Amino acid sequence: MNEELLNHLRKTSWQDRAKSVAIYHAGRCREDSKHTIQNTAKELNRSIGRISEDLTLANWMKTHPRIKKFKNPSQALDYIKGKKKEMRENA
């Protein structure tokens, strides 16, 4: 595993970490069609839950720029949860 990437994930903001994990995961999926979140978690020495959260955060940041302004990922995930509920109620 790329030690430089692991150091980056430890030292960067949660926003940049989420984007980096998403880019890494997408690249690995392009290389291997059978690559999974579980594989990414193992390769990055992180839990499956954290990888899933990072992928969710990165995806939502693309369409909801406000998410980038939250102080931590928990606040951003709470916002996403609220938006999902709002979307279900308005469907």
Fold and architecture overview:
The termini are far apart. The protein has one domain. The longest helix has 18 residues, at 14-31. It contains five helices and no strands. The model has no long low-confidence stretch (mean pLDDT 94). With 91 residues, the protein is mainly α.
State the total count of DSSP E strands.
Answer: 0
Give the % helix. Answer: over 70%
Question: pLDDT average, as an integer?
Answer: 94
Proportion of residues in extended strands: under 5%
Largest β-sheet summary:
none
Secondary structure tally, helices: 5
Q: For the CA atoms, what is the radius of gyration? A: 14 Å
**Class by helix and strand content?**
mainly alpha
Question: What pattern of helices and strands is seen along the backbone?
Answer: HHHHH
Shape: globular
Brief rundown of the structure:
This protein is mainly α and 91 residues long. The chain has helices at 3-11, 14-31, 37-44, 48-63, 73-89.
